[in-house]
Amino acid sequence: MDIAAINALPYEAFVNTFGNVVERCPLISAAVWSRRPFESLADLEAAVSEFIEALPESGKEGILRCHPDLAGRGLQSGTLTQESREEQAVAGMDALDQAEALRMARLNEQYKQRFGFPFVICARMSDKADVLRQLSERCRNERAAERDRGIAEVKKICRLRLRALVRDKL
């Protein structure tokens, strides 16, 4: 879909198309729809990013809470969104050995206990060793720093999801 087609989408079609560019947060695409027309994919990306940045800290943490645990119950039970399932597979989260799976579960729980939201990383830009390393390291961050880092990762995920949906003129 090109940017002209995106700009022509009625509200419901826009939300249906872009409702999961930020995991399980269709409200963001609903809010961004009113900022049309977009000049380019970069303009659409900026609108989403600006909306997220304008949220209070509690809103940003709410976005983080919408994300599933990596290699968690959602992956095991098949309840992840299609996008999350594909992203986790790219990072090898669906192919952890028993020791890796136990470590991931322990670190995910430790992280959530410390911060109150799940660990978020752009899985498409990582592999399982990198995910485990970063999860272990980021458990030591301060809450505000980790919230900011998580939101930066959300924006990377969003950018890749948007690029998968939008054909931009070069």
Structure, explained:
This protein is an all-alpha fold. It has a domain at 64-142: UraD-like. Helix content is 65%, strand content 0%. It has 10 helices and no strands. Helix 2 (11-18) crosses helix 3 and helix 5 (57-65) packs across helix 10. The protein is globular. The two termini are 14 Å apart.
Q: Mind telling me the C-alpha Rg?
A: 16 Å
**Which range best describes the helical content: under 10%, 10-25%, 25-40%, 40-55%, 55-70% or over 70%?**
55-70%
How would you characterize the largest beta sheet? none
Share in β-strands: under 5%
Task: Tell me the structural class.
Answer: mainly alpha
Number of strands: 0
Q: Give the full name of the CATH homologous superfamily of the domain at 64-142.
A: Oxo-4-hydroxy-4-carboxy-5-ureidoimidazoline decarboxylase
Q: Which stretches are low in confidence, meaning pLDDT under 50 for 5 or more residues running?
A: none
Distance between the termini: 14 Å
Discrete helix count: 10
Mean pLDDT: 96
Features:
10 helices; UraD-like; mainly alpha; globular; 170 residues
Concise account of the structure shown:
The chain is mainly alpha-helical. Helix content is 65%, strand content 0%.
Topology:
Blueprint: H1 3-8, H2 11-18, H3 26-33, H4 41-54, H5 57-65, H6 73-77, H7 82-90, H8 98-115, H9 128-138, H10 143-165
Helix pairs in contact: 2-3, 3-4, 4-10, 5-10, 8-9
